């Protein structure tokens, strides 16, 4: 069985919003990542991925996003052996000044350009790949907020 996780590549004013995950977090604590979280069991439901992502962003960093567009999906196994399907969406910042709203999950927020992310040797390859793919979608003329 898989846990389904969604993440938002939030873009605003030429920069991407990353969070410094709380050291209290079981998975990847103390690392930079996109904002997101796990889908909850809802039985029969529609738009669960999009609604989950908007809820997680609001809970973790206190802002709203718009224009969600699929970027990619992947799977991984956590250190505790949990299988995870991860879906990334490109998002545009809509309202609210992001801040570390959930201290249990977020220690800090950081805005970085694509080039700053790609040049950072401490960031994981999958994060860089997600940003590269989201950046490509941004550059396509067909993307509308």
Task: Describe the protein in words.
- It contains 3 helices and 7 strands.
- The mean pLDDT is 90.
- Strands 1, 2, 3, 4, 5, 6 and 7 form a 7-stranded mixed sheet that branches.
- It is an alpha+beta fold.
Features:
Nucleoside Triphosphate Pyrophosphohydrolase, 24% helix, alpha+beta, 3 helices, single chain, globular, 145 residues, 7-stranded mixed β-sheet
The number of helical elements comes to: 3
The end-to-end distance, rounded to whole angstroms, is 34 Å
As a percent range, the share of helical residues equals 10-25%
- What is the CA-atom radius of gyration, in angstroms? 14 Å
CATH superfamily: Nucleoside Triphosphate Pyrophosphohydrolase
- Output the helix-strand order: EEEEHEEEHH
Q: Which class best fits the helix and strand makeup?
A: alpha+beta
Mean pLDDT over the full residue set: 90
Write the layout of secondary structure elements.
Elements (H helix, E strand, L loop, with lengths): L2 E10 L2 E7 L10 E2 L1 E4 L9 H14 L2 E14 L5 E13 L10 E7 L1 H6 L5 H15 L6
Parallel strand pairs: 1-6
Antiparallel strand pairs: 1-2, 1-4, 2-3, 2-7, 5-6
Brief rundown of the structure:
It contains three helices and seven strands.
């Amino acid at each position: 069985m898989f846990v389904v996780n969604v993440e938002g590549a939030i873009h605003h004013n030429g920069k991407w919003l990353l969070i410094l995950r709380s050291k209290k977090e079981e998975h990847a604590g103390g690392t930079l990542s996109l904002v997101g979280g796990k889908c909850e069991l809802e039985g029969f439901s529609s738009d669960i991925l999009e609604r989950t992502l908007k809820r997680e962003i609001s809970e973790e960093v206190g802002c709203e996003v718009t224009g969600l567009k699929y970027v990619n999906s992947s799977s991984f196994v956590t250190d505790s052996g949990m299988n995870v399907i991860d879906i990334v969406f490109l998002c545009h910042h809509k309202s609210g000044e992001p801040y570390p709203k959930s201290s249990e999950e977020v220690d800090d927020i950081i805005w970085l350009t694509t080039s700053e992310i790609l040049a950072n040797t401490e960031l994981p390859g999958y994060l860089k790949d997600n940003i590269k793919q989201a950046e490509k979608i941004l550059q396509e003329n067909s993307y509308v907020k």
